[in-house]
Amino acid sequence: ILAPQANRTQALNYGCIVANADRQEGLGGLGELGTVQHYVEKPSTFVSEIINCGIYLFTPAIFQHIGEVFQRNQQELVLEESSNGWQRAEVIRLEQDVFTALAGSGKLYVYKTDGFWSQIKSAGSAIYASRLYLNQYSKSHPERPGRKKLRGAPPCVAGNVYIHPTASIDSTAVLGPNVSIGEGVTVGAGVRVRESIVLHGASLHDHTCVLNTIVGWDSTIGRWARVEGTPSDPNPNDPYAKIDSETLFRDGRLTPSITILAIPAEFVILRSIVLPHKELSRSYKNQIIL
């Protein structure tokens, strides 16, 4: 199990792992390996700050353990008073049924990593994950391939920015920090893009402002339009903080998040989600446009 560290409060939202500290070994300074002594999926009280991030490496022997769980479920199959029907034996939960049983057996290991990790359950969390990837990309590829291959004068770039080689960017555009420009994207004169992902084939017309936004495939943002979302970043003062999984609605209202859209000229779209194949005729705020 690949396992990063979370803070004590947010760890309750994940599978928590107690590892055998006496048997941990350094692996080239990249992390620590240890046997899993105890595993609890989303505990009600604090168990451990080491959490399951959903990345596993199994040997084929895992199928034997899954088979044992299946056989046990068949034997223990009962009609619960609180349920409306029979619990199906073939429904096997990897974390609750398999990992919990293997914990303490010496056959389940945890690899604790200090690398970045973020759960992506909302559009807003994708923006934060993109920032983490761009930061890692800037370290592993300091030359930032793609930007040097742009046609004409390069745009003004601040911070970590990835630009696909096929994108057409006006030299007066300002990009960054934390911007990803996809294949075949067109960015016009005077455009400002920050903390955003622009997917392939999108077109940002002259003097548009795009902040904390995901612009969908083949979308068009008209001239002088402004699209802006609300960032959903974790606590910057806590190195182990994770993004909280926000519900789409709270108290009957749309939870402020980033924006996904395509709009004509001179409109302002704030904290809204626009589904594909829509053309907007006015400005919107805190809306989901179907």
UniProtKB/TrEMBL annotation:
Domain Mannose-1-phosphate guanyltransferase C-terminal: 158-289
UniProt cross-references to Pfam families, sorted A to Z: GMPPB_C, NTP_transferase
Keywords carried by this UniProt record: Transferase
Top-level division of the source organism's lineage: Eukaryota
Annotated ranges, domain Nucleotidyl transferase: 9-69
GO MF annotation terms: transferase activity
Entries under InterPro entries matching the protein: GMPPB_C (IPR056729), Hexapep_transf_CS (IPR018357), Mannose-1P_guanyltransferase (IPR050486), NTP_transferase_dom (IPR005835), Nucleotide-diphossugar_trans (IPR029044)
Family of this protein: Belongs to the transferase hexapeptide repeat family.
PANTHER family in the record: SUGAR-1-PHOSPHATE GUANYL TRANSFERASE
UniProt protein name: Mannose-1-phosphate guanyltransferase alpha-A
Organism, as annotated: Opisthocomus hoazin
Lineage: Eukaryota, Metazoa, Chordata, Craniata, Vertebrata
